[in-house]
Write a structure and sequence with these properties.
The complex is a heterodimer of chains A (about 350) and B (about 270). Chain A is α+β, with helices and mostly antiparallel strands and about 350 residues long. Chain A has 8 helices and 20 strands. In chain A, the strands form 4 sheets. Chain A has a 6-stranded mixed sheet with strand order 6-7-8-3-9-10, sandwiched between helices. Chain A has a 5-stranded antiparallel sheet with strand order 13-12-11-14-20. In chain A, helix 3 packs across helix 4. The longest helix of chain A has 18 residues. Chain A is elongated and about 75 Å long. Chain B is mostly helical. Helix content of chain B is about 75%, strand content about 0%. The longest helix of chain B has about 35 residues. The two termini of chain B are about 45 Å apart. The chains are: A alpha+beta (about 350), B mainly alpha (about 270). Chains A and B meet through strand 6 of A and helix 8 and helix 9 of B.
């Protein structure tokens, strides 16, 4: 299964929901679409499923253009955010619904339903009605129903958003294991960056109907292409600067030179620094900034410190509390040094 | 607080007692009374003769059977015409929906008898429809005072009562369910049969009951549009009451009709539960 999307545009009247978007998803891949509300991620999913008619562009599934096919003829299934379980059917009726397409026999449907119930660990629930199930069980029925017809590509629209926190992280791992064992290609839509980073083989960050960046979670997190991506996926402190001829970055308003440890073209840039890559206190790192501790917030496992620089810029840092809170507690208003390694520098194009 | 609540509840109870229970009791009393010459034309007693007569005499039984048949056919016709209407309104763009609903209810702005008289104007031998048919060279047809005219009148009158509850139900269906069914490979006709239709059944039953029940006892439409052969139970009742001045028999017909009307939905519910 290869999904190839080229120049896909969807417009609702004057509103552009998808703006000539390109995307390729490979066989067996778990691709995550990450974006805020209104970024077009759900529209993209609906265009692939066939519920939204594109104004331009092509969607090819293994070389076949999906455009002329209505939703019920596409070899693609969707797991809906609301689950959309049929309230008047049993769990078995729901899961078996998609099997009629091939005119499967009753026995074949029953066998497949039983297989899917085992897969999502809901044996014994076949005759229940959706309203008799908990949220997590409904989620698994929805998943089983969308997987039962053995789709070439499964589209998942915020599949975990309706679950509560603890269940969500368990289900995350379960979903990934399931995807690996089945080998079905998944496209999963989410607005949750942690979900995207932990689950994706590759992910795409959506912005205003376009894919701002596509890559593996590490690629996108470590080397974001734009300020938007840097700030959407994880947090980032942004400082305007200029790359010098020797490759170092000059921060003129702070009067500081920063070593980046890699060549860069001279010119104006934005320097992005991840909070967790900054060290509070003098750790002997090559790059250093001094400021005043403005705020500290204790969050159990981590400590968030906000440091005010000479020019008034606030820098957020986040440190793992390896040795307990006492080791890093500092006086608010006192002078502090921020340090980081050259490799922690992210250079972004100016806006 | 408690007194206020009692008062608020007392109003509907008083209403029901005064306008439902009391008339029912009076009708039942007259049904078991004896006919008599005088004013009023009955003598209070306790006899089941009248009820036995209307339950066994072919005249009343045939009238009741015909009424049930006419009501059933009319209800089915209303359903066949009204379901697509209700679905179309529920699926229309939001800005059109209110206008379309208004169009369904618009006939209620005119008096019922006026509208039936308008149908007479359309259907009679020198009416608009026959004039058109003659002009087209098809020739005039006897339309008025036929069963067809009666059915047209009943379906026309009761259609909104079916469309409105059905629309209310259909408009509340989650469109995502239809998407899910299509996504799982169901073509549109199967989405309708497996998802929309079963989920709309409560609206279908409500609408059908609102058509069927008043249609069984319908008097005006068969009287004004139907032929003399359409001896429905409403006409028979009217005849007993005003022409024969036999109040006990008329009251017995009314009681019989009520029993049948209560029994039909009860049996239907039992059949559906099974």
């Amino acid at each position: 299964m290869t999904l190839q999307i080229t120049g896909l545009a969807v417009r609702y009247g004057p509103v552009t929901a998808l703006d000539r978007l390109d995307l390729t998803v490979a066989t067996g891949e778990l691709f995550v679409l990450l974006g805020g509300s209104g970024s077009g991620k759900t529209t993209l999913l609906r265009a692939i499923a066939g519920f939204v008619r594109p104004a331009e562009g092509r969607i090819l599934l293994d070389g076949t253009d999906l455009a002329p096919l209505p939703p019920h003829r596409r070899p693609v299934n969707t797991m809906f955010q609301s689950y959309a379980l049929f309230p008047h059917m049993t769990v078995a009726g729901n899961i078996g619904f998609g099997m009629r397409r091939r005119g499967a026999s009753r026995a074949a449907i029953a066998a497949r339903v039983a297989e899917m119930l085992t897969l999502v660990r809901l044996e014994g629930y076949a005759q229940r009605r959706p309203y008799q199930l908990s949220g997590g069980q409904q989620q698994r029925v929805a998943l089983a129903r969308s997987l039962a017809p053995n789709p070439r590509l499964l589209l998942l629209d915020e599949p975990l958003s309706a679950l509560d926190r603890g269940l969500r992280s368990d289900t995350r791992g379960e979903l990934v294991r399931l995807q690996r064992s089945l080998g079905t290609s998944f496209i999963l839509v989410t607005h949750d960056q942690e979900e995207a980073l932990t689950m994706a083989d590759r992910l795409g960050v959506m912005q205003d109907g376009r894919l701002a960046q596509i890559g593996t979670p590490a690629e996108v997190y470590e080397r974001p292409a734009t300020r938007f991506v840097a700030e959407f996926l994880g947090a980032a402190n942004i400082l305007p600067g200029t790359v010098q001829a020797d490759g170092s970055v000059d921060l003129p308003q702070l009067g500081v030179q920063v070593r980046t440890g890699r060549p860069a073209t001279p010119g104006r840039i934005l320097l992005a620094l991840r909070p967790e890559r900054l060290v509070v206190g003098d750790a002997g790192t090559p790059n250093r900034l001094s400021g005043v501790l403005a705020e500290q917030a204790y969050a159990g496992g981590t400590l968030t410190s906000t440091v005010r620089l000479a020019d008034g810029t606030l820098i957020r840092t986040s440190q793992a509390l390896r040795d307990g809170f006492g080791s890093v507690r500092l006086a608010i208003g006192g002078p502090v040094t921020l340090g980081w390694q050259p490799e922690a520098c992210i250079l972004l194009p100016p806006e | 607080m408690r007194a206020g609540r009692t008062f608020v509840l007392a109003v509907p109870w008083a209403w029901l007692l005064l306008f439902l229970a009391a008339p029912l009791a009076i009708v039942t009393l007259i049904a078991v009374a004896e006919p008599a010459d005088g004013v009023p034309p009955y003598r209070l007693t306790w006899t089941l003769d009248n009820l036995r007569l209307v339950a066994t005499d072919p005249l009343y039984r045939n009238a009741l059977g015909l009424s049930l048949k006419v009501a059933a056919v009319s209800t089915l016709a209303c359903l066949l015409a009204g379901y697509p209407m209700a679905l179309a309104i529920a699926r229309a763009p939001a800005r059109w929906r209110e206008t379309l609903l208004l169009a369904v209810m618009l006939p209620f702005w005119t008096g019922f008898l006026m509208r039936i008289n308008a149908w007479i104007g359309l259907l009679r031998d020198d009416g608009w429809i026959n004039t058109l048919l003659a002009w087209l060279g098809i020739g005039r047809l006897p339309l008025l005072y036929t069963d067809a005219a009666m059915y047209v009148g009943i379906v026309y009158t009761y259609l909104p009562f079916l469309v409105l509850p059905l629309y209310a139900r259909l408009s509340r269906l989650d469109p995502e369910l239809e998407h899910a069914a299509a996504d799982l490979g169901a073509p549109p006709w199967r989405v309708f049969l497996r998802i929309i239709l079963p989920l709309s059944l409560p609206g279908v039953w409500a609408g059908c009951a609102l058509v069927f029940i008043p249609a069984v006892g319908e008097y005006v439409i068969p009287e004004l549009l139907g032929g003399p052969q359409a001896q429905l139970v409403g006409r028979v009742l009217w005849g007993e009451f005003f022409q024969n001045r036999d109040w006990p028999t008329a009251a017995s017909v009314a009681v019989l009709l009520l029993v049948v009307l209560l029994a039909v939905p009860a049996l239907l519910v039992r059949a559906l539960r099974r």
